Amino acid sequence: MRASPILSQILERPDVWRADDLASAPLPGVPTGFAELDRELPGGGWPRGGLIELLPVRRGVGELSLLLPALARLSSAELAWLVCVAPPHSLYAPALHAAGVDLSRVLVASAPGRDAVWACVRSLAADGVGAVVVWLPDAQATALRRLQLAAEASRTLLFVFRPAGCAEQSSPAPLRLLLEGEGEQLVVRLLKRRGGAQPVPLPIAIHRPLRVSHALACPAPATAAARSLSQPAVA
Questions:
Q1: Helix or strand or coil: residue 185?
Q2: How far apart (Å, rounded) are the C-alpha atoms in residues 51 and 162?
Q3: Which of 21, 111, 124, 222 has minimal CB crowding within 10 Å?
Q4: Backbone phi, then psi, for 90, in 5-degree steps?
Q5: What is the per-residue pLDDT for 112?
Q6: Beta-ladder partners of 185
Q7: What is the number of domains present in the chain?
Q8: DSSP assignment of 128-170
Q9: Which secondary structure element, helix H or strand E, spans residue 12, and what is its range?
Q10: Which domain holds residue 224?
């Protein structure tokens, strides 16, 4: 008669994790560019195959600066496309370029409401897309679940920006970060991750390219549908 595996053997399996331990990830993470943050994330970086929810307490705390090292790596080193969906303002191209982002690999889609979710799903399914960044302040649970399922079927990073007030709501996102700070100091609170939340705030020194206040500039034209940032997006 075949013996049953003992508990220690089960716990050694890569697909089993204890709720109070940091989980492993099926795919290596994309380095965030911040060693202290990488140490706290399953896979040692931004996890592929799942929704990453970012909740800034207000616009301009440095939320895009947190993503720039990974976006630069994907666009320049891996030659992957970056798709930005429904940004609240025009992206400030000089700041992205100064951070090492290849502007010829950046696409911007102005797709409000349900169209934004549709654009994300299509982008996640497309070959050659390394990251999708979307702003969904009014996203409902059904839309988030749809995005999570699409992300699970993809190797693409999916960053979803929502207001900090959404932190009290339930979310299918396996990774949720609350962001606050001022100037070049960003405080990250890991509200949810595979392996348990991180109760201690994580201070991170971010670099703002060209010392601009934000990588978002002025309101985007309502007529813009989708365009490359090969030219500075400054009004």
A1: strand
A2: 12
A3: 222
A4: -60, 140
A5: 80
A6: 182, 205
A7: 1
A8: TEEEEEEE-TT--HHHHHHHHHHHHT-SSEEEEE--GGGGGS-
A9: none
A10: 31-165+173-228
